Amino acid sequence: MSKNGLILAGFDPSAGAGLLMDVKVFSAIDIYAFAVPTAIVEENTDTVNCITGVKPSVLRGQLKILLEHSDVSGVKIGMMYSSKTAEHIRETIQEYRLKNIVLDPVVVSSSGASLFRGSAHTAVSTLLHFCTIITPNIPEASALSGIKINNKQDMLLSARYFIDKGAAAVVIKGGHFIQKGLDLYMDRKQYAFLEAKVVHKDVHGTGCILSSAITAYLIKGYDKLEAVKRAKSFTLQAIKHSRRLSPSLKRYSGILE
User: Fold this and answer.
1) In what order do the strands lie in the sheet with 169-173?
2) SS3 of residue 251 by DSSP
3) How far apart are CA 66 and CA 221, in angstroms?
4) CB–CB of 234/26 below 8 Å?
């Protein structure tokens, strides 16, 4: 029987990233997806025009009605939009004793638009203690840890920051400034640099795919490192089989065909 997972993320109407992409990934890995939007984003695969945060009362109401009547075996957290939303998520994790928490600390879209209102550092710090895995890219890891990442040693130092602050494990995605296809996994006992074949496509939503796939594999019972390895392979296949949404758009979606 398929297990249930919960997704909290921004709603991207192009479905190339965010909540809709996460749902597709969960479904592809045979996890039933409950999904609660944190914000409604006016965007396509190239551009973000505006963002409207979901009212706290709506967020709380949706979470309450889902979690009081259904079991959830893991949670993927994407775009949080604000520190207030992060606080509501923390309270929900504690109240319902949720596990297998994967946080993708989305702050800036792949098109360069700011996706957060207020202090992203405060919001992430609120949740770090509950994170099974946090999955920042290099700019996010640099900003949150205060360590400018230019090489592998910097990646290790930044990853250690997240572990020291309470996360059980961290994956720093190396697609920015470091060799593409090279990610760092670190938990409280070990670390590993994970390489993959580079696929030369300008793809929208790969961070969402990776983090939601990690969550799905954790829900299926894999340990943290194995879940990351499987999710990385899944993401590579998604990139290989992605398709252009429109001739007028430069970016591809990460949709599996």
Assistant:
1) 48-53, 31-43, 3-11, 75-77, 101-103, 133-134, 169-173, 182-187, 191-195
2) coil
3) 22
4) no
Query: Which of 160, 201, 156 shows the shortest CA–CA distance to 182?
Result: 156
Mean local confidence (pLDDT), 157-170: 97
- What is the Cα–Cα distance from 110 to 114, expressed in whole angstroms? 10
Pick from 34-48, 196-210, 239-253 the range whose average pLDDT is largest: 34-48
**Residue 252 banded pLDDT, cuts 50, 70, 90:** very low
- Annotate 59-97 with DSSP letters as a single string: HHHHHHHHHTTS----EEE----BHHHHHHHHHHHHHHT
Structural domains of the chain sorted by starting position, each given as residue range(s) with its CATH number in brackets: 3-240 (3.40.1190.20)
Whether the Cβ atoms of residue 187 and residue 224 lie closer than 8 Å to each other: yes
Per-residue HEC secondary structure of 150-190 comes to CCHHHHHHHHHHHHHCCCCEEEEECCCCCCCCEEEEEECCC
Local confidence band at 123 (pLDDT 50, 70, 90 cut-offs): confident
The percent of residues in the chain predicted with pLDDT above 70, rounded, is 82
Q: Looking at residue 115, what is its pLDDT?
A: 62
